[in-house]
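Data deposition worksheet. Section B asks for the primary sequence of the deposited chain exactly as it was used as input, without tags or linkers unless they were present during the calculation. Section C holds the resulting structure in token form. Section D is free text for depositor observations; keep each observation to a single sentence. Incomplete worksheets are returned to the depositor.
Section A, Depositor: J.P.
Section B:
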Amino acid sequence: MALDLYQRLGVQRGASEAEIKKAYRSLAKQLHPDRNKDNPNAAKRFGEITHAYDLLSDKDKRARYDRGEIDEDGNPKMPFGGGFGGRSAGAGPQPGAGAGFENFNFGGADGADLGDLFEGLFGGAGARGRGGGPFGGFGQRARGPQKGADVAYRLKVPFVDAVALKAQRITLADGKTIDLKLPQGLEDGTKIRLAGKGEEGPAGRGDAIVTIEIAPHAFFTREGNNIRLNLPVTLKEAVLGAKVKVPTAEGPVMLTIPKGTTSGKVFRLKDRGFTGKDGRRGDQLVSVEIDVPAGDPDLQKFAEGWTAPGNPRADLGV
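Section C:
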């Protein structure tokens, strides 16, 4: 019998989100195709645990799965448990039951019209079949062959690669390696569907669904499609002005710091941010921070002999 989603990850049915995540990470490290190139079973198991984690990490889907509303592939289960009147599908007629449906009331003063119910479930009036009976069309309405299950992946993309939309090389569960093209409008949680890269099925392969996570950066932060950077400058550069080198996601550029620049001054570098869905790029916003060295005797001597004019806090009412 196929393992249920919890058994695939080796956790109890009541496991917490943290326990499920920990179990998945441990198994993913062991079974990743890059570490098991000569073991196709490991690649298959990698796809199974990734699919299990993707479903169980979704609170709504997990709740529906626990209630028995969906199966291990995330598909709705058959109504009535797969049969009628408490009998399993395919069971033979019961004694005194005729063809198996005589005990149902399909209309009349005392019963609901179950014929209408089955019309809704199996495709409307056509489900009655040519003979007009409520079950005559079952043969024509049988569910056709299905594609294989989708396989879920999570991909952490470096911040600068996300800005540049640099293609990412990934290894699929079948061991094949592809270069994944990143789309415009990329954000945390963006899902990319790769048609035909899932599990095999009677009607063809399912899809691979890649969920993107943009890794944080050491000194860049994202605001919408803009990028923010706090840039330290020396007191001399701020007072006298200077040309300084500024990092961007696509390499350093030169920025002119005017004379008398104060801390908090923001400079805008056009088209150095993320690309939106419309193809337009955000900017990089550079906030100046004046770095005052501690314990510099020359600077201390200068400050002691300098009388600053005015009150810089006058606008604050103090």
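Section D:
Confidence is low (pLDDT under 50) at residues 80-140.
Residues 244 and 255 are 5 Å apart (CA to CA).
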